[in-house]
Amino acid sequence: MLDKTLLEVLPAGVFDKLVHLRQLYFTNNKLRKIDKGLLDNLIELEELYLYGNMLQTLPVGVFDSLVNLKKLHLGRNLLSVLPATIFDKLANLQILRMYQNRLTGIPSGCFDQLTKLTELSLHVNYITHLPSDSFIQLQSLVMLMLSNNKLIALPPRIFHHLPNLSKLSLFENQLSLLPVSTFGKMDKLKELWLYDNHLTSLADDLFINVTHLTVLTLSYNKISSISRNAFRGLDKLHKLSLQQNHLSILSENLFSYLGQLRYLSLSFNQIQSLPRDIVKGLHNLTVLKLEMNLLQNVPEGLLDSLAHVQQVHLHNNPWKCDCAISYLKQWMSSHSKVIINSTQQKNSFSTMKSQSYMFLVLSLQIHLFVSACPDGCHCYNLPNFVICNGKTLTEIPTSIPPHIQILQVIHTQMEVVRANAFLNLSSLVTLIIHQTQISHIDLGAFNNLDHLTRLSLEGNRLERLPAGLFDGLHSLQILVLQSNRLTSVEPDLFNQLVSLKDLQLHHNRLTTIADGTFDHLTQLVKLNLGKNKITNLPLKVFDKLGQLQQLWLYENQLGAIAARSLANLNSLVELGLNSNSIQHLAANVFSALPHLKTLTLSGNLLSTLPQGLLLDLPKLSQLTLYENHLSRLMPGTFGWDVFSNLGQLRNISLHNNRLQSLSPRVSLHLNVWLCDCGILGLQDWLKNHPDKALAPNRVTCHNPPALQGRPILTLVDESLACDAQSAPPVNYTTGLIPLQLNTEGERRDHYILTAARSERTNAVNGSYFFCLQKLLSTLSLLLTLIPFQLCFRSSLKWSILNSFLKIFSRTSICFVMGMIKHLPIASEQPIAHSSDDNGIKMKRRKYNSFV
């Protein structure tokens, strides 16, 4: 392995004597060329890794002697052209990766000899066209990645000879049309990714040949019309995403072919009304997203067929409060366990499930019309809210009511935001500009927005933001810049955002972040830099972010992480490094992160983990390492000495590696076991698997005091009471972790039983204050909705009044009992009990073996 040696040239004959070499890594160097003949003696070579260099061309015949080659990685170079015969002798090649180069096209017949190829990665290039016969011989191909190119059109029948294709990615191109002949018979295609293109319509039977599709993403396009039978044949589809398009009208029974659909997103469109039968037949649907549209009501009966729905997102629609809204109110009241709102909307009642809160959520989303409103906009109050989505709008209207607090500008033809565009809107708290044609924002555009706390510029065409653009926004707490075309960030851009807590920069084209960029963001809690093209991190780039809790760097091109760059992130709880090109980690890279709970390292190139890597992460509860090149786990990394320091680890994912063995024994001692009736399952497992637990007699009780120090194996049923009076106010949990190891050799499924001690919970939990808040909210809501009852029938009036009386009495009792007992009011812990003089005891259950 010759990694990061900074070599620019390989001398002739350097590999001549390595005739039995199977793997060659020459990665992350500065290699500019490979001379013909350099690899001629490597006749047994199976894997060749040349990614992360500066290769500009490949000489004809350079790979001709590598007849046994199975994997060829040429990603992250500067290749702009490929010789037509460059791969002709690689008949055994299975994986070919050429992502992140400068390719503008593919020669006809270039892949014709690669009949065993299963993966072809061409994403992040500049490809503008593909020959119609590009993939005609690739009948073994399973994964084809063409995303993030400049494809304007696809030749007819280009995908007609790929019977084994399972995943096809075409997102982030410039496709405006998909002919019906695009997709051939592909019974194994499961995932089709088409988001972030320029599609305007979907024709009948477009997907008729991909009947086994489970995931179809069409978001971030310009789709304004979908033919009635566009989705015919997709009876196995699970997920359909149509968000961020230009839809205003949906055909009746448009989704009737999608009987297995579980997730449907129509958010961020311009839908004004829904056909009565639009979701009819979607009996398996669990998530329905309708937020950020122009809906004023829902047809009666529309949601009744959704028997398994768990989430219905309705927020940020201009609901009209008249008699027609009664169906939606009744449905919400009768589905109190369904999450009605989105967890992403600030100050939303996102997870409140009682009837009173469902009614409260509804009242907050019924906006009343405000008279004076500019053309192309809709104005509402409660709160003061304006949506501007006129397709003819080319600039921010000047006649927007000055007292508004929320302004949304979506789906317009606006290309520029001028200086002082919001000068008269000094009360603005939230400003959202989504899915427009904006490519430039003048300096001073956000002048006089002293109260602005949320600014979202998602899904535009911004390539650059001038330094000083956000100056004066001292109250800003959330800044969303995701899904633009930013290639760099000015070092002084964020200097005056002293209150910022959440910065979203993901899904751009950033290649690097300069030192000092975040130095003034001392209050920042969340930073998302995922889905960019970042190749390295300056050592001091995060030095001033002592309050940061969540840092996402997923789907970049990072080859390494220096410990110094994370040294000052003492508050970090979540770190996402998945889907990069990381090959090595220093043993101390995470040593300064004592509060880290979630660490994702999946989808990298790690072949080993250093000893002691996790020693300084006592709070780690979730670790993902799947889809790497791990072949063995060092004892110093995952041995029992390390597991003893990971007392809160609940989930570890290691599938899709090269592991061939893992010790099946389990260490359970030195935990604070609560020996009540809930310990019976563990006792059964210890008795039935004495060979699988280390020191089973040292697995002892910690509570209750009467049993402290007693081995769990010696307990008898009669001593295991579940007495609410004597139980300590601490949650002790036992977690079963399924650890699946998909290996290239031997596959084993291990179930590791780990004991994790959770943090002490607050027994009081603010219960009586919570009930007081509910009580006051109920009274306030009753007064607010009294005028709206005028349009209700007499029986409905009494029904509403009766509901409020019930809510009022419940919340009153809740408040009083909370004050008297000073105890948690709402316990979510189910208790199966029977009366007994000695306490409350649970019946012994039958437990299946864990292993």
Automatic annotation (TrEMBL):
Q: Which superkingdom heads the taxonomic lineage of this protein's source?
A: Eukaryota
Q: Known SMART domains for this protein?
A: LRR_BAC, LRR_SD22, LRR_TYP, LRRCT, LRRNT
Q: Could you tell me which InterPro entries the record lists for this protein?
A: Cys-rich_flank_reg_C, Leu-rich_rpt, Leu-rich_rpt_typical-subtyp, LRR_dom_sf, LRRNT
Q: Name one GO biological process term.
A: inflammatory response
An example GO CC term for this entry is: membrane
Q: Which UniProt keywords apply?
A: Glycoprotein, Leucine-rich repeat, Repeat, Signal
One Pfam family of this chain: LRR_8
The LRRNT domain extends over 372-406
GO MF terms here are: transmembrane signaling receptor activity
Which residues does the UniProt record annotate as the domain LRRCT? Answer: 317-374, 671-723
Q: Which residues cross the membrane?
A: none
* Protein name as catalogued: LRRCT domain-containing protein
What organism is the protein native to? Callorhinchus milii
